[in-house]
Amino acid sequence: MTELETLQRAKMYLDKLANGIDPLTDRPAGENDRIHQARISRCLFYVSDIR
Known about the structure:
This protein is an all-alpha fold. It contains two helices and no strands. It has helices at 3-18, 38-49. The longest helix is centred in the N-terminal third of the chain and has 16 residues, at 3-18. It is flat and about 35 Å long.
């Protein structure tokens, strides 16, 4: 896997996590999962948008 492919996969994981999706199973995270906290989601979206 090239570095670009690794970065693309990492971005995909961040995007899924930010949207409350487990990137390994593609299932929604549990209701009590910390990933649903707004501050965490916003942080993940922010990092994902860095170029």
